[in-house]
Design brief:
Layout: H1 7-11, H2 19-33, H3 42-58, H4 61-70, H5 76-79, H6 82-85, H7 90-98, H8 107-112, E1 129-135, H9 137-142, E2 144-155, E3 170-172, E4 181-186, E5 189-194, E6 203-205, E7 217-228, E8 237-240, E9 256-262, E10 269-271, E11 274-282, H10 283-288, E12 290-295, E13 300-305, E14 314-317, E15 333-340, H11 347-360, H12 366-379
Parallel strand pairs: 1-9, 11-15
Antiparallel strand pairs: 2-7, 3-6, 4-5, 8-9, 10-11, 12-13, 14-15
Length: about 375
Amino acid sequence: MREKKGYYEILGISKDADANEIKRAYRKLAVKFHPDKNPGNKEAEECFKEVSEAYDVLMDPERRSAYDRYGHAAFQQEASFQGRTGFHDPFDIFREVFGSSENGGGIFEQFFGGREGRDGEGYQRGSDLRYDMKISLEEAAQGCEKEIEIRKLDVCERCEGTGAQAGSRNIACPMCRGRGQVVASRGFFQISQTCPTCQGVGRVIEKPCRPCGGEGRVEKSSRMKLKVPTGIEDGSRLRSLGRGEAGIRGGAPGDLYVVVHIRQHRMFQRDGSDLHCEIPIPFTIAALGGEVRVPTLENTATLRIPPGTQNGTLFRITSRGMPLLRSSGHGNLHVKVQVEVPTSLNSEQRRKLEEFAELCGEHNMPLHRSFYEKLKGLFS
């Protein structure tokens, strides 16, 4: 059986660490070792329990005092009653500090942006941002890298995001005297409300950074490159972690969501992974059959037209549509033919066509014959 580590050693802090230092250390280690992030890892689960136990003891002034005097021996008797008393479950500690859906969120949500709240030192997660980007159908088919420029609140270079001038300290708020709340009188009633000076934190920066006014962030333009995956669809969102607005006083940054809009193509209409287009063909090819060239997003393809093809006939060319997202396959290209009839004939062309019409007869016009048979039945 291995020797039990000291609580200060487990959290990696000194013996004179204050409550905020204990919270920060626990927050970092609990996220690292939490079972949700390490499924099936027994060693990580044990580390999580050790970290939680250390936090539970050191955050309780009486238990911490006993531990400082007697070490682990101070809790040997307490430990013997774990099965009967329900000794603090480490997952309860995690929920207490990091929040849960039932209790509306804790320090974890406030620090990492679950509610964009502040923790005890005024840290606040930056806002998420949205950027609408237009690309061509060809870029969606081939994938591309785009450079965008956005104006956002970014980390202040002067104070490196702390919000404080060099050598400045966090001091108790002079307005609320560190309580985070102020009392306002309303006739016979007194109402406690969030301190407007410190926003409920209870502490303020002694000498705020001048460029950012103590927020740790200033507005500036930022350029960044984004990779657009092959086969992306219109309206898809690309998420870039940590590229949103900077957090207040070193808080976690928000995320950037890029919404992709695909411009309308002059030749193709898209339906999922399939493409649709219309092409004109001479009436002679429609009657006699032949081959025509069909455009695709890459080059052209050959389409064989069988004799007697009617106007509006739909053909399918397999695997010449859009590439499938995160796959090696392709959709299909659907081609609708429009039979083109000459608009201007000279006398010789007209004579030849009239001879042709006489030679064809009704037996070569099945659609024409069928239509007039239905028409006769309608008025009989």
